[in-house]
Amino acid sequence: MKHLVLIFTLLMTAVPALAVQPDEVLPDAAMEARAREISKGLRCLVCRNENIDESNADLARDLRLLVRERLVEGDSNEQVIDYVVDRYGEFVLLKPTLTGANKLLWVAGPLMLLAALFVGINFVRRRQNESDVAELTPEEQARVEAIMKD
Question: Closest by alpha carbon to 63, among 52, 50, 49, 71?
């Protein structure tokens, strides 16, 4: 039983292996650390919600190589990210910026929620005010009583 608990504990604490291949690693440790930091913020366009540092997709490998190539050419971290965003669009960023059209997307959700609450509250209020229920005529009342007897 102790062995099962130990194995389970080890499996639960295992960290995901990075997909970076040995031939991709830069010889300069500082530059490799910069490449890893940039790669963690870039989305794999195949896997969607996985960064390129952890993805095994061929496109993610190409993006990792592109990041390292730009760093070797002397680009700063921001220049590398700008280059990748210019090439693939802002979708490649795992944390999108709050500029331009993205402001509309960030604000649209809460505005839609407020509009839905407003409509819902008005609907409930109107339903509560509609207490003017028409009374049954004597003929309708007699018919209802006859149906209820059956």
Answer: 52
